[in-house]
């Protein structure tokens, strides 16, 4: 392993990017690699494996186990590269003009690489307050993989004092983000030859009525924007994102699925908004469908759910984050993170702060600037000093 901090970060990031951890694939080779790296330093983590045995999170404690500590948290999964126009292999790190290119460099293997690169300094400091590394999976498909780990954290006798979730914020201190609730509506119609269309029940047409209602409610939410909000989009948002239906032009469609979501500002607002839409559809659309044919109707299923984050601006974890980052400001973001689950599932107050910008996440030729990673390393260095104090 290289001796200089920047070279250590580069090497670790190159290793992490080299693992194709798109969410539909196993992350176990990456986890094993991290475990091997830590074992060489005399550190052992706690692996939490999912029901399939193909995914795992890693919980690592450096410092005294019987003291409440601080968490550095990042996910290992990345979004797909299919259909994106990359100028090089997305799973091979490339450096040009101070920028490190590769899938996950910003979101968020860069942060994980920095944390791992700083482990030798954590060990050398003989921490009085422990630092935990929380490394998860399947964040990109709804913050799925962190939940089993947080259930284990919630059972521990000594709970963490707070958590820093290293999503890309350009090292700004983020105290809030919107929640999200996603729903799939499956319309069951009645197929008929299109020449006798009135005898059928058109699933797509009823689905269209739902889509129009979703749009109407989205416009209403936009009209209720908060003045002076810290959010760049200062209201809850609602949209239809995926629609599938129909088999042929001359067949009345007997099925149509509609996926829609709400990103709500309030802690539970996302679910409240979608629940109201489901209730409306069951009251206004489904009875008409069933009157046409008793087997017709609508089935609803939850496809994604996480709460909003709303950490108090004067919370101790926020004050500490500002001190470590060397800044006095804070903000909120529209994208979701695991921070709200640390707070809601394990009672761990959290902020979001990490290297890189969200504009680079999920894009072809995704990159993070080396200067951002070094700035993040400085943050962790100050955290180590803070945790080394008696």
TrEMBL record:
Q: Does the keyword Cytoplasm apply?
A: yes
Q: Which SUPFAM superfamilies match?
A: Bacterial exopeptidase dimerisation domain, Zn-dependent exopeptidases
Q: Which GO terms describe its molecular function?
A: acetylornithine deacetylase activity; metal ion binding
Looking at the record, the residues that make up the Peptidase M20 dimerisation domain are 175-287
- Set out the biological process GO terms recorded for this chain's protein: L-arginine biosynthetic process
Q: Which NCBIfam families match?
A: AcOrn-deacetyl (TIGR01892), PRK07522.1 (NF005710)
Instruction: Give a GO cellular-component term.
Output: cytoplasm
Domain of life, per UniProt, equals Bacteria
Keyword field: Amino-acid biosynthesis, Arginine biosynthesis, Cobalt, Cytoplasm, Hydrolase, Metal-binding, Zinc
Q: Which Pfam families match?
A: M20_dimer, Peptidase_M20
| Cofactor(s) of this protein | Zn(2+)
Q: Where in the cell is it found?
A: Cytoplasm
EC number(s) per entry: 3.5.1.16
Protein name, entry field = Acetylornithine deacetylase
Organism of origin is Bradyrhizobium cajani
Question: Which InterPro entries does the UniProt entry name for this protein?
Answer: AcOrn-deacetyl, ArgE/DapE_CS, Bact_exopeptidase_dim_dom, Peptidase_M20, Peptidase_M20_dimer, Peptidase_M20A
